[in-house]
Amino acid sequence: MAVPQGSGWRISVDTGGTFTDVVVADERGHFTIGKALTTPSRIFEGLRAALATAAAALGLTVADVLAHTAILIYGTTRATNAIVTGEVAKTAYLTSAGFPDVLVLREGGKFDPHGFSKPYPPPYIPRRHTFEITERIDAGGGIYLPLDEDQAERTLLSIKARGFEACAVSLLWSIANPVHELRLGEMIERILPGVPYTLAHALNPILREYRRASSAAIDASIKPLMQAHLRDMQADLRHAGYSGEILVSTTIGGCLDIDSVVARPIHTVRSGPAMGPVAGRRYAEFEHQQESVLVVDTGGTTFDVSLIREGKITITQETWLGEQFTGHMLGISAVDARSVGAGGGSIGWIDTAGLLRVGPRSAGANPGPACYQLGGQEPTVTDAALVLGYIDPHYFLGGRMQLDIAAARAALKTIADPLQISVEAAAYSIFAVSNETMINAIKDITVSEGVDPSEAVIVAGGGAAGLGIMPIARELNCRTVIIPRTASVLSACGMQFSDIQVEHSASMPTRSTTFDRTTVNEALAAIDSHLDSFAARLGARGFNARQTAYRVDAHYAAQVWDISVELPGARLESAADVAQLVQSFHANHRRIFSVDDPASPIEFLNWTGRLSIALPQPLASAPVAPMAPSAPRHIGLRSALFDLDDRREARVYRGEEIQPGAVIEGPAIIEEATTTLVLPPGTRATLSPAGSFVAEFLPR
Amino acid sequence: MKTEFSSPTPTPPHAEALSPMLLAVLANRFDGVVREMTNTMLRTGRSAVINSARDFSCGITTADNELFATAEGLPAHTYGLNLQTATMCAYHDDIAEGDAYLHNDPYSGNSHPADHTLLVPVFWEGEHVFTVCAKAHQADIGNSLPTTYHAAAKDIYEEGALIFPAVRVQRGFETNQDIIRMCQRRIRVPDYWYGDFLAMLGSVRTGERRIRDIFQKYGTATIKRFVVQWFDYSEQRMRLAIAALPAATIERENFHDPIPPFRTVQIPVRVKLTIDPVAGQVEIDLTNNIDCMDNGLNLSEACSISNSVAGVYNCLPSDIPRNGGSYRCISMKLREGAAIGIPSFPHSCSVATTNVSERLLNNVQAALAELGEGFGLAEGGIGMGAGMSVISGTDARHADHPYVNQLIIGGNGGPGSPYCDGWITYGIPVVAGLMYRDSIEISELSYPVHYQTIKLTQNSMGAGRNRGAPGTLMTYGPSNHPMTVVFAADGQQNPARGVRGGGDGNVGRIDLIDETGAETQMPNVGQVELKKGQWLRGLDTAGGGYGDPLEREPSRVREDVLERFICVAHARDVYGVVLNGAADEETLAIDDTATMAVRLAMRSARGSVRSGGALPADV
Predict the structure, then answer these.
(1) Are the CB atoms for A466 and A487 separated by under 8 Å?
(2) Backbone φ, ψ for residue B484 (5° rounding)
(3) What is the pTM of this model?
(4) CB atoms closer than 10 angstroms to residue B91
(5) In chain A, where does the domain assigned CATH 3.30.420.40 lie?
(6) What confidence score (pLDDT) does residue B174 get?
(7) Does any CB of chain B come closer than 8 Å to the CB of residue A113?
(8) What is the ipTM of this complex?
(9) So where are chain B's domains?
(10) Beta bridge partners of residue A563, listed in sequence order
(11) Residues 153-172 of A with CB under 8 A from B
(12) C-alpha pair distances (Å), A632 with each of A684, B303, B507
């Protein structure tokens, strides 16, 4: 085909652990997907290969595609993987004297009250890399103990002598008065020139020393690595002839320019899961779904769930890398995407007293489910789905992988025999129990946000999304489920819909009873000036469609956990504005916890401004495709089990043969190259003009 | 004498047994109900003891008062909700939908008076089917002193708590405001209390709705069948776990420190365990304990049972459901009028949930270690020292507004186990690491307190093949007006003991440091008023070690030196590991030859001391 001239195409890239996904959007908003194996030694190779498959589908070369692209958004798991595997810089952690164990002690808490078989998890930076600095700022911001510069100098010289590669500085109450952190920053630049460092108050000026220290430690530890990685990527892209803008996707579901990310690489951590809800929100909008949206992403080993309420993606300050309590807290704002260990690889087993359990152990991709015949012997959810008739053994991944149903049955027999049930019943039982884990994960996020799942729609992404989502939705009383045909590349799609976003915070505690409007407005002005300098830099490059929203974290006096409340405007101009803020807090508290306490003072803590700069959107509204109601032809029938004793002949459809407007009633199975949608009896799906299957329950 | 859970009644196989799938699904659903109750409470609790220390539990009992589901409740709360619901049923013959009952009576099933409990009977089709319960430690309960742990109280009258023996606070979903006003008059921080009351109410009413949803979907017959099968399953898990233990009868004694002037001699804690693997039964006999004391440290019946049972659960696979089914495998022998047993009115149980309970729990798990290698646990660090004290006063920053709050800023180290070293943020045995720690900054912002140091101690842990975790050292004082600090600690005399050759943890200590720097040691139990410029320094205790320190891998000893948990001299003197070089990762190296020689010498020196079987026979 002819290359359209002068167009602003957009490429998004999601480099995962196994696959690199690429989505190319033309100026009409048409998506072309490319997929290739990730090449860890040089990420660009995998990117190029994925781009080549997309280009081939368009009848173009990689160079053609790059030449007509204005914006490339790069998403990477590099930082996350480095943290998980501990392959980060040798980082010195500087803390206030007397408080060396902030990273060790974390915030306490533990699962499993009677469990004593797991060791206490080591801190993110070992104690032997922790250095106490003689100084102390007090809670009011006063200098309680001046910085001992001689001691600091000696400490930094020893850090230099021992070959540290990065420094994280997080002192108590640096958010109230950063003078000591700033001075240490100057000293690091003098004594350790070229060694990257992070000052906690500058990176993440929030209350709570553990969170601030943890974010500073993580950020500093990945600076050398991510700076090199992103610069290499930039050089490779330029070398390949790309001259457009390069943006990097971030953990709040936005994207940032490379310079910003190089300065604060922590913002790339867990950016992949953050993009699922960005895509989910847009897919729900395309279907004119205004309610709360639950976005689920089902992979082989993890199930991620996130929530969109009133068009806003739920954000949290409490993202853990690894398990809650025992991992490391990211500390910065992040899309609240909660992961549970459940997926196609989850293993079914029977405990000592005969109870059927599924997970948390997973066969993963290697050895994988028994039906992969890669050495796995234990029955997994994928084996169950195969035996239930949901998956065609000859059309898995579009036929690229043959599955062995006999091996799946043999594995399931190890469950069926002791329970004295049939192999089919064992398969359905594993499937149903596995769905329970996901139901719980969804309930947890909706409960903690005060949302009734029955008033939400579900957007299901990930390769395994379509297998169990309808029974899960039925259990949660959700009426509508949206399964985009691009479900398997949800994160890369999310990047296509993302904006440039940056946040800045200030800690300025004040109580509703003695509200200090002047100081709060000064803090908001300081946030604005920080965001303005960022916006000015990008404005010079043509990104001008900016807007800023403000919020504050607050709690009732003596409560410990905060909730976020949006500010009525950029400043609190009057007592009426404060009163409105107070009312918003009570209302939010009532929504989330079903109680409020209007007589209680409210403590406002951290103030945040979020600057969004809209990118030219390839898809301002739902793409228009010809639509005519039709009943597509099925390619055959397959016997499938939809309950313990409910076997039906399900019609099987090929996704690529279905036209927008087509209506398919369950029992049916719709097979796409990278995903499968199972429609149980009593359900119906319509392919929308936007390219999503919109599934609903028929009235009984 | 009284025996609990006496007659296990195995249920015969039922023709209409639920499918394995439905059994697993329903188990998950009820677990989900308790999770939702717990999350509701955690997020809405007003006082730090709830939303930070997680000193609360939610649970479900059956209508005939067997504990049914507890989820991740505190070990100290694992048992007892059923005693409270039994009291509710005994005291009221007109229980109806829309009722809620307030219970905190330690003489009729509660742990201690500070644990206010709300009980809501759940009805379906006119039948009382379950009771949902939320129990939460309150910031204040109107005691005669501003503490919820009144160690000095010679009886309930001196203690001064308002006692609610299953008092109806709601009828027809309407709250009896008389009771609210009574509490608000008497309780020092009425707004915190009322906030926590609302949190509990939100939690139990949520639980009620969710249980009704389950009945709606599955029907009464299926749920009743499920209850029977779930108890049987839980019992079976427990029996199999006990069957894996050696048969034995073990008597063990440990001691709570004296708490002069209220008691000038130690408090012995005695347990006798009989393990019958063939019957799958453990008997815990507490009858040989002393009579009730004229102080606040007596255990309630709930605490006597709960902490004994928790000691057993700590040593078994941790996913065994803790409910009426698995409890069938444990029988308790308790004595009326015993300090550890069934308290006689009006002896005070104000401090029942912590001090002596900690010793009891430790005693049971350490006794099980005598079964042999791989069984039991060491003792965990004990005592709510300076870092878990109750501070009170007025805050000059907020117009002298009064405050009272329990700090959760320090803590003791966990016990060594057969599998690993102790858990660092363990706290005390009865919370076993579940509680959250206060943020230093949030604490300094919320209360007029200033911390000088909070850090883990070195060389303090009970050594062992798996060592205990270190305790915390902290120093703090008021940042403006004087501050009263009330503490009810333990462990200044008797440390957490090691087992199977493991060493003991350090003893605890609390010191007052005045303006001149002069130090005065404080007793375990007491109170002090600190003026600005005066400081309280607390040394918490470390956990005991499990197994012989000479069997600890030298590489792990080196790692402990690098991580500054121990010093080079300690590595040599206690672990027999000789290290060369400076204590940094660049140069520190194990001298294998010297280590072998030192360990050999230490073993043979010990042989002469330890002959006569100080170690159990199977070692």
Answers:
(1) yes
(2) -95, 130
(3) 0.92
(4) 15
(5) 9-83+228-268, 281-342+434-496
(6) 95
(7) yes
(8) 0.92
(9) 10-234, 377-547, 554-610
(10) A554
(11) 162, 172
(12) 13, 67, 78
Among residues B379, B377, B356, B235, the alpha carbon closest in space to that of B286 is found at B356
Residue ranges of chain A assigned to CATH 3.40.50: 88-227
Beta strands A320-321 and A328-329: pairing type? antiparallel
Is A145 near chain B, with CB under 8 Å?
Answer: no
Helix axes B20-44, B220-243, angle to 10 degrees: 90
Yes or no, beta carbons of B446 and A556 under 8 Å apart: no
| CATH of segment(s) A88-227 | 3.40.50
Local structure of residue B160 (DSSP, 8 states) = -
Q: In what order do the strands lie in the sheet with B248-256?
A: B2-3, B330-334, B281-285, B267-276, B248-256
Q: What is the pLDDT of residues A553-608, one digit of tens each?
A: 998 876 767 888 999 999 999 999 999 999 999 998 877 766 678 888 899 988 99
Q: Which two tokens stand for residue B6?
A: 């006496």
Q: Do A436 and B417 touch (CB under 8 A)?
A: no
Q: Which residue of B has its CA nearest to A599?
A: B191
Residues of chain A with pLDDT under 50: 1-6, 620
Specify the CATH number for A9-83+228-268; select among 3.40.50.300, 3.40.50.970, 3.30.70.1350, 3.30.420.40.
3.30.420.40
Torsion of CA A340, A343, A349, A354, to 10 degrees: 60
Whether A114 contacts chain B with CB within 8 A:
yes
Closest-approach residue (CA) in chain B for A601:
B191
**Cα separation, A686 vs A622, whole angstroms:** 16
Residues in chain A: 700
- Beta strands A69-76 and A9-15 are parallel
Which fold, A500-613? Dna Ligase; domain 1 (3.30.1490)
Q: In the 8-state DSSP scheme, what is residue B409?
A: S
Distance between start and end Cα atoms, chain A:
50
Amino acid at position B408, single letter? I
Residue A592: its chain B contacts at CB < 8 A? 43
SS (H, E, C) A623-686: CCCCCCCECCCCCEEEEEECCCCCEEEEEEEEHHHCCCCEEEECCEEEECCCCEEEECCCEEEE
Q: What is the CATH number of domain A281-342+434-496?
A: 3.30.420.40
Kindly state the DSSP code that residue B447 receives in the 8-state scheme: S
List chain A residues with CB under 8 Å of B206.
594
Q: What is the pLDDT of residues B141-170, one digit of tens each?
A: 999 988 889 999 999 999 999 999 999 999
For residues A604 and A610, give the distance between their C-alpha atoms in angstroms, rounded to a whole number.
18
Q: Does A449 touch chain B (CB under 8 A)?
A: no
A647-654 and A563-566 beta bridge pairing? unpaired
**Residues 6 or more apart from A32 whose CB is under 8 A from it?**
A23, A24, A25, A26, A54, A57, A58
> Could you tell me the two tokens for B270?
């005695």
Which residues in chain B show pLDDT less than 70?
Answer: 1-15, 47-52, 78, 607-619
Q: What is the rounded radius of gyration, in angstroms, for the C-alpha atoms of chain B? A: 25
Task: State the Cα–Cα distance between residues A668 and A653, nearest whole angstrom.
Answer: 8
